[in-house]
Amino acid sequence: MSDLIALACALPKAELHLHIEGSLEPELAFELAAKHGVTLPYADVEALRAAYDFNDLQSFLDLYYAGAGVLRDADDFHALTRAYLQRAAADHLRHVEIFFDPQTHTERGVPMEDIIGGIRRALLEAEAEHGITFRLIMSFLRHLSEADAIATLEAAKPFLHRIDGVGLDSSENGHPPSKFERVFALCREYGLPVVAHAGEEGPPAYIWEALDILQARRIDHGVRCSEDPKLVERLRAEQIPLTVCPLSNVKLKVYPDLAEHNLKGLLHGGLVITINSDDPAYFGGYVNDNFIACIKALDLSETDIVQLARNSFTASWLDDAAKARLLAEIDAVHAQWQTAQ
Ligand code: ADE
Ligand code: ZN
User: Fold this and answer.
1) From atom 4 of ligand 1, which residue's Cα is the shortest distance away?
2) β-strand partners of 273
3) Staple 222 to which of 93, 98, 160, 199, CB 3.0 to 4.6 Å?
4) What is the pTM of this model?
5) Which of 15, 200, 201, 209 is catalytic?
């Protein structure tokens, strides 16, 4: 098993489901709180980390939005993103597609320019330093109104050349994709590709809506598709990727235990499954940690691991030439690993 873990860690990979606000480690949260003279309601880093014990998505989101309150200027967003990208480089990530939640920050008075500017500065640095390419995805908060999402899209208009796509996240139950039909139609008119969180806590019907009403090209989570065989067949036939986040699903009690997760079954069923970290600072690990936990709990094979790494690139928004180059790199690292066995 340790050989398979070494293979998974060494393979070049992409991460396609990462909320940059969810990469805020307690150490940085305290550092930024001190910088801005903000008092966090926890004695120290250990006390904050100990609070990362969730019953469901909402109990996590309450802490996640409170934590994001220490992000106040462009340098904060830069420090946050830079720290994530250092972890990404250590995990052999070669490409990242990152969500940011502008509404969490603009409603506190942080200008859109500072949010995007700070994140982008770190992304460009990591591209130069580590060769990590990137896409930036603006995500709308589904617990807020569609009018609020439309206003956010309007505010983002001067920066649309910096945004590669749009997503939908936050509290899922009671906030179906259909609530956002008009804003996503506008996004598509602006040429922005769409992804959406669906079927994390919400029912399979939300995945159908994300596909048919929002015209999502990729589904974030999507694990509840298993409850609807027709939906699983559609995801397979149309090769619509699912960005699965195993440690997140256990932390938020979507699954009681990783051993019960359906990702291996879906992968063997021919779906384009990818492994991602979601909110790594809160859920106990980055991409390699997710691979390691899945290898242990689900007994993933060599073929599974290589397929998951391949899927991370095929499901990305890289162009065909870049995909081909990275898939060839996977083959090279895999061959090297085989020779060493
Ligand atoms: N925002 C950050 N993480 C999320 C998740 N797992 N589901 C929905 N919204 C989120
Ligand atoms: Zn997510």
Assistant:
1) 170
2) 242
3) 199
4) 0.98
5) 200
| Residue numbers of the domain that contains 87 | 2-340
| Ligand 1 binding site (Cβ under 6 Å of any ligand atom) | 19, 22, 57, 64, 169-170, 197, 200, 248, 278-279
Residue 15, Ramachandran bin (φ over 0: left; ψ between -120 and 50: alpha; else beta)? beta
User: Ligand 2 centre from 62 Cα, in Å?
Assistant: 14
**Mean of per-residue pLDDT scores for the chain:** 98
Give the CATH number for residue 264.
3.20.20.140
Instruction: Give the pLDDT score at 91.
Output: 98
Residues 6 or more apart in contact with residue 97 via CB below 8 angstroms: 14, 15, 16, 17, 18, 134, 135, 136, 137, 164, 165, 316, 317
Total domain count for the chain?
A: 1
Q: What is the tens place of the pLDDT at every residue in 298-316?
A: 999 999 999 999 999 999 9
DSSP H or E segment with residue 244: strand 242-244
Our CA angle for 271, 249, 24, nearest 5°, is: 115
| 8 Å CB contact between 246 and 275 | yes
**Are 220 and 17 in contact, with CB atoms under 8 Å apart?**
yes
Number of Cβ atoms within 10 Å of the Cβ of 171: 17
Q: Rounded to whole angstroms, how far apart are CA atoms 63 and 49?
A: 11
